[in-house]
Structures are given as structure tokens and as C-alpha cells.
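User: I'm curious whether this sequence folds into something compact or stays loose and floppy. Could you predict its structure so I can see for myself?
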Amino acid sequence: MLSYAEENYLKTIYHLSEESEGKVSTNSIADRLDTKAASVTDMIKKLSAKGVLSYRKYHGVTVSEKGRIAALKVIRKHRLWETFLVDKLKFNWDEVHEVAEELEHINSSLLIKRLDEFLAYPKFDPHGDPIPDENGEFKEKPQVALNLVKIGSSGIIVSVKDSNNVFLQYLDKIGVYLGAKIKVMDQVEFDGSMEIMIDGKRTVFISKEVSENIWITD
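Assistant: Here's the prediction. I'll summarize afterward.
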């Protein structure tokens, strides 16, 4: 059994390992969690003792198979709860992350099994992220970041990589949502900003940072 704090650390380290495709530094963990490196080192030692991490000083941290399974269980719960909050309780997609952060630590496999069944076994959460099944398996969608799409090309928005509520509120304001059809009208060479058309009706300008966090498929 992992504590609330241990689950949060493990989930964060798992996400960082996916982004870096391997070892994770203590500094990157400290930055992501906005805490001190010394606190991170103490927690890493605890998690290593529980067999969910592998750690060598100056060589970074890797997630063990046991840790991967544990992290995916927490991620599964988080994304199922986000789906429940949006689909059944009519929360907006920018309101659910913090609530799901609390609910993901409820340790009841039966509750999560029933929740999954109640939601008709969703494969993706409200932000387009895949929901792992009971075995930790999940379905990926072929997708590419909008900033890499050529001028004149179109696609459907399938996920957003930043679940910060301010970012999601901004997307709501400009009319961007999962399932929207996007056409790249122009891209500014100087700063990478883009002019995009949404659903063939509305044209807006977005920054490079925004385009990097919007992912589309053909």
C-alpha cells in the first residue's frame, strides 16, 4: 500500500519517465511538484524500498514494473473520475482535475470496477487521454501536435496535453474542443504562432505554446 503522497510522487515520476523515455532526474521531479530536491530524494528512497522505483545516486530514477502497474492504477482512477464528473455530473473539463486528484486515492477496486461499468467502459477521458483498463492496457490514438501540422492541412482535435484550468478556459473562449475540425491557415516563422480555422467557420490566432498542447488526427 502506498500513501496519498507516495501515490502522487509515483504518478508524477511515471509521467516524467514517459516524457523523457527513461530515467528521471530529481531536479525535474522537484520542478514538477514545486518542492525541494532534498524532499524528493527522501521520497525516492521510500519508494525504492517499496520496490516501485529504481534509484542510483547521480544516475536518476526509473519506474519498476511493479511501480508502472501501481502508477497506472492511480491514473486509471483519475481519468475515470474525470469522465464521471464531466459526463454524469456536468462539470466543465476545466473543473475536474483537482477533484479527481482527491478521488483517485480511494482504494476500492470494486468501486472502480463498478464506475468503469457505469460509464460503459470509456477509452478516453474528457481531455483525450487514454484510460488504462484493469490490466494497465490502453488504446492510443494516432495524433500529432498542431504546431507540426503544415499550412493548409486539416485534422480533428483528439486531445489536449495541458489540463491546467486556465488553459482549458482559454480554449473554451476561442471555441476549441475535442472533436473540433481544425485547418491551419498560416504559421508565423518568427515566433511559431498560427492562424487556424475552427469547424470551417471561425478563424483565430494562437501562440506556439498553445499549438504544442493541442493534438489532432486526420
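Summary: The two ends are 42 Å apart (CA to CA). The mean pLDDT is 94.
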